[in-house]
Structures are given as C-alpha cells and as structure tokens.
Amino acid sequence: MGQVQEFIHKEIKDFDMGLFYKISDKKLLKDRNNLFKEVGLPLLESNGFEKRPFKTSWFGEYYSGIKGYIYTYGRISENSYFEYINIYITKGDEYIKVFLNIFNLSPKLSSINELNECEGINFGIPPNTITKMRLRSDDYKGPPLFYMLFLPEHKVGSYYTKKGYEAEINKLKKLIKSDMENIDSFVKKWHELHKPNITDWEGNIISSESSQ
After folding, report:
1. For residue 195, how many other CB atoms are within 10 A of its CB?
2. What is the DSSP letter of 155?
3. Rounded distance, CA 159 to CA 168, Å?
4. pTM exceeds 0.70, yes or no
5. I want to staple 67 with a disulfide (CB 3.0 to 4.6 A). Which of 32, 91, 149, 171 is the partner?
6. Comparing C-alpha atoms, which of 66, 62, 61 is closest to residue 90?
C-alpha cells in the first residue's frame, strides 16, 4: 500500500511540475523587469536616449499605483524633435509595454537636460496621448486578430513546463534586444502614422496635427 501511495504521489508531483508548471505573479514581474534592465536599458542609452528627462519622471522604482515598474527615457532627434519613451512592466500580465511618442517642442531644445526642471506630466495625458504608439501593437497594420495570432509581441507566451517558461523568457529577451537596438525603425513607423504636436516644454499644446 505504501508503494502505491508513493507511486501516486510521484505521478501527481511529476504531473504538476510538467504539464501545469506555473510561476507566481511576483516572479513573472521580477523576471520581466530584470530582463529589460539587462538588455533593454543599455541599448536605449547606446542609441542616445537619456533617463529621467523630467523632474517627475519615474525610473525603475516600484510604483504601487500600477503594481509594477516604470522607466522613462527621452532623446532629441537630429531634426530637433523630442522622442519620448515610457516602459511599463506590471504585475498580473505577461507584457513589457513600450510606448513611443514624439513632439515638436517650442522653443527648440539645445540639450535634453533643459527639461530636467520641467514637470512633464502633460506629455502623458490627453490630448498628447492620442499620438502615443505602443511598440509591437499600435504600429502593426491590418486586422488586429492577425498580428495577435501570428506576429511577435513583447510578452511571455504560453508554456507548460519550466523549460518552456525559460524558452519564452529567452525569446522575449531576444525580441526586446533586437527592438531596442533598432529603435529608429519604430521612430520611422511613428512618423508614418502621426505628425508631432507642437508643445511647450511642459507639454502644453501650441499646435496640434491630426493623425494621418
């Protein structure tokens, strides 16, 4: 009887560890955050983006309001546009959400550091958010169902084993690395979809261009 119970216990354990491997929301949050810190942040910085462009910017702190982490970057382009990136990694989902928005600031900036004493709050609320583009989501053309099913996303996909989970993390890591390395391709896509609003340094709109 003891051997039968031991066998059943082993089978249940193997079944749970194999077909129904599940990690906690806490670990999934930690793994995604560590992944982005390892490969995403250095590549954005190597592409000229600077962290905390505003005095109110979040950068890597845990924010209880979203139950996760926020990273904020800014860059002045060659044509003097302000390119603004926000990354959200939150508890309870599988995504790393990367958002890009671009503004035509007036007067022109000579350095991104000139924004350091500005609030920046208005850049993250309507109507400025109308032109916000989420990478690997808003930049796709065609039926949403198609890209949801067939095109890569910044998320941890389905898995049933520990090895499967690790494979999904590695796949996400490679995609984040590639996309942050080639962030200029997403800047180009943004310009294909939108025109930058003209704002002051606090994000107050001076002139708004409707999306193309």
Report:
1. 15
2. B
3. 7
4. yes
5. 91
6. 66
174, 157 Cβ separation under 8 angstroms: no
Cα-flanking dihedrals φ and ψ of residue 78, to 5°?
A: -65, -30
What integer pLDDT is reported at residue 124 of this predicted model?
93
CB 154 within 8 A of CB 136: yes
Asked, for residue 14, whether it belongs to a domain, the answer is: no
Residues, the chain: 212
The model's pLDDT over 131-177, given as tens digits with 9 standing for 90+, comes to 999 999 986 665 555 455 557 899 999 999 999 999 999 999 999 99
Name the H helices within 138-209: 144-150, 162-181, 183-193
- Calculate the CA 5 to chain-centre distance: 48
DSSP-based helix, strand, coil % in the chain, nearest 5? 40, 20, 35
70 bridge partner residues = 88
Place of tokens 């294909």: 192
Give the E-state strand segments of the chain in sequence order.
50-51, 59-63, 68-76, 82-90, 97-105, 133-134, 197-199, 205-207
**Is 170 contained in some domain?**
yes
CB 156 within 8 A of CB 94: yes
Q: What is the C-alpha separation between 193 and 132, in angstroms, rounded?
A: 10
For residue 188, being part of any structural domain is answered with: yes
10 in a domain, yes or no? no
Domain span holding position 200: 24-207
Place of tokens 């389905």: 158
Specify the number of domains making up the chain. 1
Please state at what angle helix 25-35 crosses helix 162-181, rounded to 10 degrees. 30
Q: Is residue 20 classed as helix, strand or coil in its secondary structure?
A: coil
